[in-house]
Amino acid sequence: MELEKPWYLVPLWAFIVVGILYYIMAGTIVYRQLVNFTESKRRKTAFLLTIGMLAGNEVWNYLFFGLKSTFLGFISLIPFLMLVAGLAYTLKKVDLFSFVILIPYLFWLGYDLIWTYGLHMENI
Question: 97-105: which pairs have CB atoms within 8 A and are 24 or more residues apart?
């Protein structure tokens, strides 16, 4: 069964590009956190939130693709977006470069929230 897709869904190639850029961005942030890791509480928080972002992305992939649930894909984006926003807030205080490269991903997650909602609504 093929899903009905909202009209504003970007083509598959755009998801592939975003996926590649996500792992480059995430790898860069992890690397910078490890290289610049100090005994600062904020740095530790940034590192833990970065690991949380990586884990949260994999959980989302499982819920949406593994379980094939448009509803769980949509609902799970809300706490995930909050986690990434918390990471951005923390990075702004400890690593401005990592903060800057995370900002486009926050916008993408906003779009993700909209299209997963639309996808779910088209298919209930």
Answer: 97/32, 98/28, 98/29, 98/32, 98/33, 98/46, 101/25, 101/28, 101/29, 102/25, 102/29, 104/21, 105/22, 105/25
The alpha carbon of 63 is separated from its chain's Cα centroid by a whole number of angstroms, namely: 14
User: What is the per-residue pLDDT for 56?
Assistant: 97
Helix (H) or strand (E) holding 38: none
How many residues in the chain?
A: 124
Under 8 Å between Cβ of 47 and 91: no
Q: What is the pLDDT of residue 16?
A: 96
Give pLDDT tens digits for 70-98: 999 999 999 999 999 999 999 999 999 99
User: Residue 48 to residues 11, 24, 54, 55, 57: CA-CA distances in angstroms?
Assistant: 33, 18, 10, 10, 14
